Amino acid sequence: MRMAKIISGHAISESMRAELAADAASFHAATGSSPCLAVVLVGEDAASQVYVRMKGKAAEKAGYASRTIVLAQTTPEDELLGVVDGLNADPDVHGILVQLPVPKHIDTQKVLRSIDPAKDVDGFHPMNAGALASGDLTVLAPCTPAGIIEMLMRSGYDPKGRHVVVVGRSTIVGRPVALLLLRDTPGGNATVTVAHSRSTDLAAITRQADILIAAIGRPAMTTRDMVKPGVVVIDVGVNRVEDAESERGYRLVGDVDYDDVAEVAEAISPVPGGVGPMTITMLLANTLEAAKRQHAMRPASSSRAGRAVSAAGG
Amino acid sequence: MRMAKIISGHAISESMRAELAADAASFHAATGSSPCLAVVLVGEDAASQVYVRMKGKAAEKAGYASRTIVLAQTTPEDELLGVVDGLNADPDVHGILVQLPVPKHIDTQKVLRSIDPAKDVDGFHPMNAGALASGDLTVLAPCTPAGIIEMLMRSGYDPKGRHVVVVGRSTIVGRPVALLLLRDTPGGNATVTVAHSRSTDLAAITRQADILIAAIGRPAMTTRDMVKPGVVVIDVGVNRVEDAESERGYRLVGDVDYDDVAEVAEAISPVPGGVGPMTITMLLANTLEAAKRQHAMRPASSSRAGRAVSAAGG
User: Fold this and answer.
1) In the prediction, which pLDDT does B216 show?
2) Catalytic residue among A23, A120, A122, A255
3) Contact, A190 vs A162, CB < 8 A?
4) Where are the domains of chain B?
5) Pick the CATH number of A142-276 from 3.40.50.720, 3.40.50.300, 2.170.150.70, 3.40.640.10
6) B163, B193, B208 member nearest A192 (Cβ)
7) Is A120 one of the annotated active-site residues of the chain?
């Protein structure tokens, strides 16, 4: 029986991170400084702690500078905003990420708005969301949607002119990936449909997809009868389902019934090992891009001095 | 032969403007001030002069205060930004619109960013575009897309759960109307497809539409074979085609071949008299909404004083 090609976010991430590490080394050689990512964590949420640690480790492994600022669960909003202000003003910090969710006494939107848009490597600042909605080709795009585009392009599935159906309309994945797919640039120029929980006859919609992006958060809901043969599937779902045989008592499954759909699809991304690793990879890519732009913007004298020093050192 | 119901933007605008005039009168009674729209025109473009005059007249007819600031074609960017700053700071001005296009020596994005987002009644500020992209239900939405939603809702064609195909991905119409249609609110909750000039087999896509929004700017390109019987059509196109029999030497046609499609559609908006009048109507609606919010934000004392004066006067 023929099975779909696997779109491995894990493998694509590995080669992208090697490219980024080489690029970060060149940046250091040219400027005397390393791209620097600052991650702020408020509180002790176990999952958030894991994510923050993964981000810091990935940055360091790629030769970036990394800072992690951990604040107590009870930190007042003003104090968090003060920390962000300090990072905004620090020329050695190129990217800032406040790990979400923040504790309930803190206004998430206020925090996101407080980050300098030029350092907003998560792409969640309203100015960046607006630039993305306007088709801006230079914006720091949110990491998960940008990772989906990279997965398609690096697997040979250019969305240009094809019908991409996005299932899910979240502000973190569904809407921004639709906007990326509509841009007039490589990775864009798709015909894009966004469907969601209120869509009538969802299967009739998903069956039209040349490329299907499943991002609605329902375990294994997409089955073989909901796709057309030869479809390319990116599964963004990360759902915990009980599993007595697993040590942890659960396992992770995507929004797609993998075994069922893999028998008819042309290609499919797995969960885990699909979109997950790409999100951190795109965070590193955004941080390097932000670092390059911030150096290009500096007064010519200091930037030249940096280069002269590094040339002398090399 | 049965013909489609006509969705008259002209008629809907008339009743909406009467509602807005009544609402503006109540606002005046409660606060002692009228909603005020300031329109800034740079240069002498003939079409822009007509639009600016129409906006001012519509505002005055609805009982709004209206200001028109006309600046010379050669006005330096800084001077225009200074005018906008003055309007931003003026508590009597609730809505600000800079008529586009501005002369080439002026950076359009810089001008749009200079307008206080709370007074951005055109909905073009990146903060407002970002809020719209994030599904924000309180944002001042761009006027033409918001007008399209009103036309559908007031004609009894709720997009909820239906498949809406938008042809065209402009930042002024296609993308924002798609984002409005995706919101989880009345007028939203549609399944939305955005197609465009790069879409493969456009007719196969448009034939799936329960509601078709044509906004690509090609005269009469949508024909009967591109729609399914019973479709509801909103025609956003405004194209000039030569017409020797017309006094002006041209006539306006939409993106839809009206006579052809009207024979199979359930309902269709004409050009002219369709979306056109709705754009100015929504500008008035945004200005009133902005005025209400700005008054609600003022210190309680001054707002109460306004109400007391009006109560005494009435």
Assistant:
1) 95
2) A122
3) yes
4) 33-115, 141-276
5) 3.40.50.720
6) B193
7) no
